[in-house]
Design a protein that fits this description.
Elements (H helix, E strand, L loop, with lengths): L2 H13 L2 H8 L3 H15 L4 E2 L6 E2 L1 H28 L4 E7 L7 H12 L3 E7 L2 H10 L4 E5 L7 E15 L10 E3 L7 E5 L4 H12 L5 E6 L2 H9 L5 E4 H4 L7 E6 L4 E9 L6 H16 L1
Length: 294
């Protein structure tokens, strides 16, 4: 039994005639009679009382007719849903974004994509690079922005941005008037870090260790605005990417780090060799074009 058997059965009930149903379906009457007979044999019941002049459903036929209509409608809905997806009329894209990247570019790109495909929605998750990578690997997110390197055997990558980091400190700090600061000069400064879900947390600790000291961490946060406020209150110094430093208030100052310089390489990642919804695939292609132009 397949969906055609049920659809032919529905037509016979609708027209109360094998002949009229066959004409409507542009098939022969013997063909539709055989389909109904096969359906009865598959289900092990009689669908019509054939002893009467008019076609009348048996009790079993009535039950099956009601269910057949529901199944046929569900099948038609499935076809419509698939058509919508294939034509990108609808869909949901689950995307992970770290809260410490420049907030200007991605909202603009998502907005322009939404104009093109207004019925595709975005479910955005803000988290650190480590958590985003875990969620993409586990299928919770279709794609996400992370700090490279990522696992090359597990993810496809679309390079997004390379940038350096700067020290963020209070304008009255003795080092604030400098054009550049060596990392080792911060050895005795209290540090305000992003929390352990952020790759930047580990990267700062490693850079400080290579510079010959272990930083004294006085606070951690997941929000760069809060870290900025703590630096403005002279709680400590912080390290931010250049793109975020462009948005800082005059309550703090940012200074370039040298010897060694610090930076990161951001990329959009998604799982290798795994199914991606049509909407997510289209967005990734769109993102690649936008990033190339950017």
């Amino acid at each position: 039994m397949d969906i055609k058997h049920l659809q032919y059965f529905i037509e016979v009930v609708k027209f109360k005639s094998f002949t009229r149903a066959a004409n409507h379906l542009f098939i022969t009457q013997p063909t539709i009679s055989k389909m109904i007979k096969n359906l009865e044999e598959d289900l092990g019941v009689t669908l019509f009382e054939r002893s009467r002049k008019k076609l009348v459903l048996t009790d079993a036929g009535q039950v099956i007719y009601e269910q057949a209509k529901s199944i046929d409608q569900a099948f038609r809905n499935l076809q419509l849903e698939l058509d919508d997806l294939l034509n990108l009329k609808k869909g949901v894209i689950r995307l992970g974004l770290p809260p410490i990247i420049d907030t200007g570019f991605f909202p603009k790109m998502i907005g322009s994509f939404h104009e093109k495909y207004p019925n595709i929605t975005f479910h955005l998750v803000e988290d650190g690079s480590k958590k985003i990578e875990e969620e993409v690997a586990g299928g919770g997110l279709h794609a996400g922005v992370v700090v490279l390197p990522a696992k090359e055997d597990e993810f496809e990558c679309l390079s997004y941005m390379r940038e350096d980091f700067r020290v963020v400190l209070h304008p009255d700090h003795p080092l604030a008037a400098r054009d550049e600061i060596e990392l080792s000069e911060l050895a005795f400064e209290p540090f305000i870090l992003f929390n352990k879900d952020f790759v930047l947390h580990d990267r700062i600790l490693s850079a400080c260790n290579r510079a010959g000291f272990h930083p004294k961490v006085v606070s951690e946060s997941s929000q760069w605005e809060f870290i900025e406020e703590m630096a403005a209150c002279k709680l400590g110094v912080a390290l931010f990417p250049e793109s975020i430093c462009c948005h800082l208030s005059n309550k703090v100052r940012s200074v370039r780090i040298v010897n060694p310089s610090m930076g990161w390489h951001l990329a959009v990642i998604w799982r290798k060799d795994h199914y991606l919804p049509y909407a997510a695939r289209e967005w990734l292609q769109y993102a690649q074009k936008q990033l190339n132009q950017h």
